[in-house]
């Protein structure tokens, strides 16, 4: 009998120990392992912080930023030993997380993340500054490293201060409240600050009570980043946030579209036309479902331009044969933390990694049958990741064409821009110093529109790839106006920019839209007609826009029609990205000539995808009328 009691007791102890071990693994021990592998700080919580004498029974904190775990002073500083309001609040940081104080606040625990953020393009704006200074003639190429905080008062620096310097993580968040479309910067807050409904209501009550009724619900600081966190900055320039949601900017005013459901007015009163949204947006996916912390926060490396910092490719999820994966136990510490905070459970499955740099997409996995899935960071829904279609995977004619070149339905266009300095503007605002000044650069835009993207050639590592392009800078700059001599030094630039439209569709654009479309080829909008007469074929282009007197090219064009370009004027915002040369234009139009008779899905055109163009041309008949060389 005693033996049975002993065995039962021993069994109970073992079970209890297992449960304790599992609990500790999930919480403290797991966290201590992470701390031991990184520079994360072990917070020593003051058991009797005076903060809670006044701020009692507050809730709303995220699980890992609860005062019971890390106290109040680890974020807000202050004097935690005094109950006197003035003394307790001395040295307190009301809105922690700005990069100016992040080393004292967020960075005490998140050392590596802060190091990465400080060197990221979202903080330095190096690429934007480099291109602006290059266009103004203050830099010899657009690839130098800069930091926006170091701007002085040259013509280009003032241009950036007046028109561009709002969108960088170093911009201070100085007012309480949630992140909105109007938010810019804020350091860690820019992505990680979240107000619940209760926190918003309490905040309103706090304001209306003349700040006497203290909020009970604290905003949360966590990893649940939504698209609004991205929107404030990324709804400008190439406008990938608005594109993603299916919104195209116009020059209309709010009163122009009253009761018109085809338009949306943003919080800053810009009017946007409704277009087709990105297929990923239509399925409810967030920006961070694709762009993980490794891309968004950076890697610690100083990148030159935005596309250099992006490692994710469409083919990482929509793979050709097999995805690149790693097991759960090979995840880096940052990815493990995200996995833990998201409360994922697929630790027994392979996880997809980006081919370029090997960073893991922790919200993906491969099941036992080899099928790939993505877990939405928006609502936890499961999305199958379909491999590339048979056409994409076996197409040898378009191996150097990027996915976005074919799968982007539209992109924004901006043409006819003039920049002039108004030295007498009395209420100019310096976006970098956040002060009112006298004198401001002003930008006069002729037209916002949209179309299928143009295409350009990226020359990298000895290989050429075809990527989408948009009018980046078709503009004039009156540099003379900055020194008080208007119209004496006006420079003209015709620069297209590489672009990732973020208007992805499942269906691809048709063949003619690339091979027989003037805007796609860089000639600008207009009529491109293939004239076949007496067995000879000739392409004829009639532009939609008038010729710009600065270079006699159509206002919206990138290059002249079947002529060599003047590289001093016609170029790109990148040194490794260019328009099609004449030989490439002719080859594109050769296929366009074939498409005049042969449909996209005809047998002969499908054969060109599978075997290439040359073998098919050798079989052409006398009825084929090809362009003269």
Q: What ranges have pLDDT less than 50 throughout 5 or more consecutive residues? A: 1-8, 10-40
Specify the overall morphology: globular
Helix content: 25-40%
Number of helices: 28
Structural class: alpha+beta
Gyration radius, in Å: 29 Å
Question: Largest sheet, if any?
Answer: 7 strands, mixed
Give the strand tally: 23
Strand fraction equals 15-25%
C-alpha termini separation = 102 Å
Overall mean confidence score, pLDDT = 90
Report on the architecture of this protein.
The chain has 629 residues and is an alpha+beta fold. Among the domains are: 2-37; 230-285, no CATH class; 288-392, no CATH class; 408-617, no CATH class. The protein contains 28 helices and 23 strands. β20 (547-548) and β21 (553-554) form a beta hairpin. The longest helix has 25 residues, at 2-26. 35% of the residues are buried.
Short description:
By secondary structure, the chain is an alpha+beta fold. The protein has 28 helices and 23 strands.
Task: Set down the secondary structure blueprint.
Elements (H helix, E strand, L loop, with lengths): L1 H25 L1 H10 L13 H4 L12 H4 L2 H4 L8 H4 L17 H4 L1 H8 L2 H4 L1 H10 L19 H9 L25 H4 E2 L2 H12 L11 E2 L5 H8 L5 H6 L1 E3 L13 E3 L5 E4 L4 H4 L4 H4 L2 H4 L9 H4 L4 H4 L7 E2 L6 H9 L9 E2 L11 E3 L5 E4 L6 E3 L5 H5 L8 H5 L3 E12 L5 E3 L4 E3 L2 E12 L2 E7 L2 E16 L11 E9 L13 H4 L2 H4 L4 E8 L2 E8 L3 E2 L4 E2 L15 E3 L4 E2 L3 H13 L8 H9 L1 H5 L12
Parallel strand pairs: 11-16, 17-22
Antiparallel strand pairs: 1-2, 3-5, 4-5, 6-7, 8-9, 9-10, 11-14, 12-13, 15-16, 15-23, 16-17, 18-19, 20-21
Helix pairs in contact: 1-2, 10-11
């Amino acid at each position: 009998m005693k033996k049975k009691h002993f065995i039962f007791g021993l069994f109970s102890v073992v079970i209890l120990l297992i449960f304790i071990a599992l609990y500790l693994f999930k919480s403290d021990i797991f966290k201590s392992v992470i701390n031991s592998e990184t520079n994360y700080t072990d917070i020593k919580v003051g058991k009797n912080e005076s903060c809670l004498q006044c701020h009692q029974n507050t809730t709303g904190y995220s699980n890992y930023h609860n005062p019971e775990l890390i106290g109040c002073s680890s974020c807000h500083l202050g004097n935690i030993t005094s109950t006197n309001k003035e003394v307790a609040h001395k040295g307190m940081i009301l809105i922690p997380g700005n990069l100016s104080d992040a080393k004292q606040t967020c960075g005490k625990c998140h050392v590596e993340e802060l190091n990465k953020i400080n060197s990221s393009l979202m903080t330095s704006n190096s690429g934007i500054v480099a291109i602006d200074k290059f266009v103004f003639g203050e830099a010899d190429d657009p690839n130098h490293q800069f930091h926006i905080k170091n701007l002085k008062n040259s013509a280009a620096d003032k241009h950036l201060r007046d028109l561009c310097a709002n969108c960088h993580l170093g911009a201070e968040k100085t007012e309480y409240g949630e992140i909105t479309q109007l938010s810019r910067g804020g350091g860690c807050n820019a992505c990680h600050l979240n107000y619940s409904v209760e926190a918003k209501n309490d905040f309103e009550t706090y304001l209306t009570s003349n700040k006497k009724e203290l909020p009970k619900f604290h905003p949360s600081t966590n990893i649940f980043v939504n698209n609004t966190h991205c929107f404030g900055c990324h709804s400008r320039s190439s406008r990938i946030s608005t594109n993603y949601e299916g919104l195209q900017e116009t020059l209309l005013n709010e009163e122009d579209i009253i009761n018109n459901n085809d338009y949306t007015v943003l919080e800053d009163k810009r009017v946007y036309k409704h277009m087709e949204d990105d297929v990923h947006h239509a399925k409810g996916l967030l920006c961070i479902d694709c762009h993980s912390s490794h891309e968004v926060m950076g890697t610690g490396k100083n990148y030159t331009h935005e596309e250099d910092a992006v490692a994710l490719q469409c083919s990482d999820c929509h793979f050709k044969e097999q995805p690149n994966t790693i097991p759960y136990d090979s995840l880096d510490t940052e990815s493990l933390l995200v996995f833990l905070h998201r409360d994922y459970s697929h630790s027994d499955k392979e996880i997809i990694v980006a081919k370029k740099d090997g960073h893991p997409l922790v919200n993906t996995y491969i099941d036992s049958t080899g099928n790939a899935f993505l877990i939405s960071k928006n609502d936890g829904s499961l999305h199958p990741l379909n491999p590339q279609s048979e056409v994409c995977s076996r197409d040898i004619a378009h191996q150097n064409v990027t996915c976005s070149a074919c799968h982007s339905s539209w992109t924004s266009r901006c043409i006819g821009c003039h920049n002039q300095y108004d030295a007498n503007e009395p209420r100019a605002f310096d976006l970098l110093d956040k002060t009112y000044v006298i004198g401001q650069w002003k930008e006069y835009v002729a037209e916002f529109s949209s179309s299928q993207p143009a295409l350009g050639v990226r020359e990298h590592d000895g290989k050429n790839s075809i990527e989408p392009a948009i009018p980046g800078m078709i503009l004039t700059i009156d540099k003379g106006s900055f020194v008080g001599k208007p119209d004496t030094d006006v420079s003209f630039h015709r620069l297209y920019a590489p672009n990732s439209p973020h208007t992805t569709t499942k269906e691809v654009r048709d063949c003619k839209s690339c091979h027989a479309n003037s805007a796609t080829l860089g000639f600008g909008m207009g009529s491109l007609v293939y004239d076949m007469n007496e067995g000879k074929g000739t392409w004829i282009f009639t532009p939609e826009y008038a010729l710009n007197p600065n270079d006699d090219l159509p206002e919206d064009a990138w290059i002249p029609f079947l002529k060599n370009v003047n590289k001093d004027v016609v170029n790109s915002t990148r040194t490794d990205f260019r328009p099609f040369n004449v030989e490439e234009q002719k080859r594109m139009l050769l296929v366009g000539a074939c498409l005049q008779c042969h449909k996209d899905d005809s047998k002969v055109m499908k054969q060109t995808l599978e075997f290439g163009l040359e073998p098919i041309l050798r079989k052409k008949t006398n009825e084929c009328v090809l362009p003269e060389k």
